[in-house]
Amino acid sequence: MWYLLQLEWKKFKYFRTFKVMAILYVILLPLILIVAKAFFAKVDAPIDFINIKTVQSFPEIWGYLAYIGNWLTFFFLGFMGVLSVTTEFANKTLRQNIINGITRNQFFLSKILLILSISTIATLYYALVGFGFGFIYTDNLYLTKILKGTSQIFHYFLMCNGYMIFGFFIGVLLRRTGLALFLYLVYVIFLENVIRYAVHGNIVFNNSINFYPLNAIEDLTPVPIAKIINQMTKENDFSFLLSKTEATVTTLIYMAIFIFIAYQRIKKSDL
Questions:
Q1: CA 80, 85, 90, 91 torsion-angle sign
Q2: Which of 41, 51, 95, 167 is deepest in the core (most CB within 10 A)?
Q3: What pTM, to 2 d.p., does this model score?
């Protein structure tokens, strides 16, 4: 497996787009939190749902930082998932790897290992930023306050994998970079919501509206104030969000489906 990861690193270490996206992720994750706090602190109208003084301290830091990371992951890491495979088809490196003795199974495994590695690094950085802000801005530090909310780290890791695997899945199906990136963006931003509300607004309206792939991934790290809205909607027997358990299980199921279909596509397609 280490050999396969080294092979992936050799392919992409000089790929400028990967470098730019990685650098932007690193810079923007803490920067957006700082800018957002400064902006909302200057808003004249009272903000009932947000305690501005706590967004950079334990335990609230984990939820707000994860929500920011959700948007960055959707864009930067999701794009990496798409590009990790479409560039192989565009540059014909997949065919060359097969000629040089790499099996299709090994190629597929190398992509999954790449996704897991990038997701792990992104999650470790999220944890580092979270602990950094928390220790700097939290008053009266004690262990239970520090550790409260750290379960979000696992959900963040799963969220990173979810976006990247979905992007990889789209890339395997379409192969062409521009078309795959376009469909990825359209589906995440627009198409899934249209399908959800077309089906559930006209046919059946219940909590099944939440069990769509990208919605489940998003519900792993929702904006913290959404929990208040969800509590209100529960009073009318409708959940605005999936529970953490529901979002986790649903995301894992969709990830398994995407991986299986992508594997079959690579295994049987003409390279």
A1: positive
A2: 167
A3: 0.91
